[in-house]
Every structure is written in structure tokens, then in C-alpha cells.
Automatic annotation (TrEMBL):
Name listed for the protein in its UniProt record: Type II toxin-antitoxin system VapC family toxin
PIN domain boundaries: 33-149
Family per similarity comment: Belongs to the PINc/VapC protein family.
Chain positions covered by the region annotation Disordered: 1-25
Amino acid sequence: MAAGARGGRQDLRPRRPAGRPVGAPVTDSGRVLLDTCVVIDLEKIDLGPLGVVTAPAVSAVTIGELAYSIDITDPVERMVRAERYQGALNQFEVLPFDVTAVKLYGVLAALVRQSGRDPRPRRMDLQIVATAAAHSIPIVTRNGKDFAGIERAVRIVEV
């Protein structure tokens, strides 16, 4: 069996360096990918327990979800959503859903299917997680249950 393999399958998760205690910062680089739900509720979330997060990023898929959410009839809510969308563009690095992420998306969808779940309703979530996996950074989410079955491929941090 190859190094890093588990049960014949390669474990793609970033590893905590030996000697780093549990509860230490989520990432040595300070980079994390924020799930769409975290961007939406950012004012309500304390990222302090994650350690030093110096470079939060979002996926281009999240930007697409935020752009789509602006199309609402209530003018006040439309303004709030438009400000959130523009704020995400201004505040965070936007990581592309590129060829590497596309390949990982296929792996993640297969893992979800192998765990007995249907990957179709989770397509956007899986594309966002694939973006994190492509950049070897953890994903920060409020919906950890949405990512059941893919823990081998990416570090999922629930807040």
C-alpha cells in the first residue's frame, strides 16, 4: 500500500504536522475557504476559535450563489444581498473552480455516492469543497452534516 493510503485509497486531507497540539490553529498558512453559509452569517460568527485566519477566501461558486441571491422582489432584502455580494468580492480572495477543482469534484461526488447519499442536491456544496481541496486548505462551514462522507478528502471545520 502506498504511503498516505488508507484502505487502498489515498487520503487527500491536509495533515496536522506532528507535534502540533489538537486545538492549534486550523491552518499554518492562515488560509481557509469560507462556505457560502459562513459568508452570509459572517457578522454572527466568531472565527477566533479557528486560530489565526489571515487569508480567508471564497470560491467562485460562492460568488455565483451570492449573485443569484440578489434576484429577489423585496427591495430592502435585495439591497442587503447586493451589499453582501459586493462585500465578498471586495473582502476575500476569490479562488477559481478550475480544472483541478473539477477533477476533485468528481472524486467528492463519488465519495458521497459511496456513503449512500445522492450527490446531486449537494452539487454547489461539493464544488465549493472541491475548490478548498484543490488549494489544500480547510473549508469553514456552519453545515458540517452537508459534507458527510468526504472527510478523507478535505478538512471540514464547523463553526
